[in-house]
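FAQ

Q: What does a record look like?
A: Structure on top, sequence underneath. For example:
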């Protein structure tokens, strides 16, 4: 009887272990490879009519459906006025990932106005030239004035992968107070961006910490472990306001260096600008 009981316990223990592993596997798949949409509403007196911006970032060469069909379908559902991509659309030295990112952005540019700034991974000149030839508007220290309905927007783009202590947007751009000023940047620099007077800054880079935990936030960020615990003013995922400037930091779509997310699914960020 004792041998049968021990054998039964071993079988039960093995079964529980298999169930646990299976549950972990399902959580990993769901958290890391299934898309979600995060919506944000920004109100400002310079905005005269509703405008929809779709923000994608940090794809790192990922595919969501055949040729990113699931991602494209999710974007199309929002009927955006424009699409912005803020860098690291593939991982450095990943030739296949580069082709995936290039195809996605050029496909989107066939139907929508797409603006792009690079990050530290996707700053290859050939890649950027292909995007430009494919109709993607590359804003590397450039700006473009856009009129959507009755709203005038000045859209700026920078391609910094680091910031010097003397970094100042005033050295590159002229502020036009009459327009709603938006900045696309891979890496967020809230002090410098706000001091210029930007109305809205759209950034990526952080991956939202990739792994997020209740009450703790991101597990790891560019400043080290537990960035939101060590500094409550860290902008790592979500919508923030600093000195009258709104910031949207997306956790992005892909993963680096490991393909793992938790409580932080790949996201399409939808920004509604409203009067």
């Amino acid at each position: 009887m004792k041998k049968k009981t021990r054998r039964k316990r071993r079988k039960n223990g093995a079964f529980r272990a298999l169930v646990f592993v299976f549950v972990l596997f399902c959580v990993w798949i769901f958290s890391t490879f299934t898309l979600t949409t995060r919506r944000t509403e920004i109100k400002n007196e310079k905005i005269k009519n509703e405008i929809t911006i779709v923000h994608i970032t940090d794809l790192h060469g990922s595919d969501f459906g055949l040729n990113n069909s699931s991602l494209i379908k999710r974007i199309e559902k929002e009927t955006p006025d424009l699409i912005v991509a803020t860098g690291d659309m593939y991982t450095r030295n990943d030739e296949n990932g580069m082709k995936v990112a290039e195809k996605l952005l050029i496909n989107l540019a066939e139907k929508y106005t797409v603006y792009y700034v690079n990050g530290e991974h996707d700053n290859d000149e050939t890649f950027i030239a292909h995007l430009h030839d494919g109709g993607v508007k590359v804003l590397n220290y450039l700006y473009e004035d856009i009129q959507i309905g009755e709203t005038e927007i000045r859209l700026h783009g920078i391609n910094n992968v680091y910031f010097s202590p003397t970094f100042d947007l005033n050295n590159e751009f002229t502020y036009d107070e009459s327009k709603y000023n938006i900045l696309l940047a891979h890496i967020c620099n809230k002090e410098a961006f706000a001091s210029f007077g930007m109305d809205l800054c759209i950034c990526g880079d952080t991956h939202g910490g990739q792994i997020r935990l209740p009450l703790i936030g991101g597990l790891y960020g560019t400043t080290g472990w537990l960035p939101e615990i060590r500094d409550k003013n860290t902008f790592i995922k979500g919508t923030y306001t600093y000195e009258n400037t709104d910031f949207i930091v997306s956790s992005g779509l892909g993963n680096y260096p490991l393909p793992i997310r938790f409580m932080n699914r790949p996201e399409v960020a939808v920004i509604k600008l409203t009067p």
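Q: Is there anything notable about this one?
A: The first helix runs from residue 2 to 33.
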